[in-house]
Amino acid sequence: MTALRARERMRRALRGEPTDRPALAYLFLGGARHVLDRVGERLGAAYRDPQRIAATQIAAAELFGHDSAMVPWGCLTVEAEAFGCRLEFLDDYYPRVAQRPLADAPDLGRLAQVDPSRSGRMPLMVEALAQLRARCADDLFVCGMVVSPFLVAAELRGMSELLMDFVRDPPFVEALFERVTEGSARYLRALLGSGACDALLFENAGACRELLGPHHVQAYVMPYQRRLLAEARRAAPDVLLIEHNCADTPYFDEILALDVDAVSFAHGDVRAIRAEHGWECHAKHKVANACLERFCLQPRLDARPIAWIGNVDHTRILLSATPEAVAREARACIDSARSGPFALSTGCEIPFKAPLENVRALARAVREAA
Fold first, then answer.
1. 1 in a domain, yes or no?
2. Cα-flanking dihedrals φ and ψ of residue 166, to 5°?
3. What is the pTM for the complete model shown?
4. Domain CATH number, residue 267
5. Exposed, middle or buried: residue 49 (CB in 10 Å: 0-12, 13-18, 19+)?
6. Which of 12, 228, 256, 323 is disulfide-compatible with 17, CB 3.0–4.6 A?
7. In this structure, are residues 35 and 77 in contact, taking their beta carbons and an 8 Å threshold?
8. CB environment 283-304: b (16+ within 10 A), e (fewer)
9. Rounded CA separation 257/214 (Å)
């Protein structure tokens, strides 16, 4: 097959169509030390200017050979800030929440009204997406990112308080989630209105067994996530929707029931996967001496095809193994996904100080698999 441009390669890969080689997806600002050194920036400064955000993503693609780029990066506080969280801005890490509007009282009157044209960094992210698309044309598959209503609510209230509210004050939780979903939908429409997005990634790592029981996932987390996804479908039917969950034990059946085109994942409950899907992950990957305690999923034949994005170990392997071990694990993930739509990626953001040659080993693996 004639060599494809990155945008078309990713689009075809996620739709299960033929490609010239496996696609390679980039999450957030992986390997940030090398990218920031290349553009001569500190993270805090680069993340406050739309042109610098776009330039940094393009530099990452040049350094690492990925087919995609993403805005925002790994900061999960854009929506929370717009609703009224006060942030602490850092030079070499993402902003973090310093003060929560609902920390000491379940009073929705404390929340700000979200306007994507003026609230916090929302307009910055919309402009950064437009800048990125203008600069990369078809050379990169551009992905926007929004945070699930559950995770935004947890930032506004505090995770422990919100989980207690699930039991002691369900009406407040429902009202909070309604408010958050409405504001997040306005932001989502603004991102899509930029015309820059090939895909929209939904960060929903809170939907996991180590944090929530199935009742609360069904009652609170997934209904509002479905509403946000439906809003994206209505606003931009041609934009692909990606659910990202890098938790150790995600609710995979619930995720697979969502109206998404792809699932970006890292870890999971191997025993449950084996029981539910008949996929002996350890046996498959120990042949290649790669996967160890993790897994790749076999696409379910009884459902519509959902693309997998993943799932090279973004911590132990990328951070401390050899480039050969990284490439070996990447090849194992590629081999396990041959029967369905797939894009190789790390399970989550590559660590800031991951060795450059380890990150580049991912691109080598997809080239060798052509």
1. no
2. -55, -35
3. 0.92
4. 3.20.20.210
5. middle
6. 12
7. no
8. ebbeeeebbeebbbbbbbeeee
9. 14
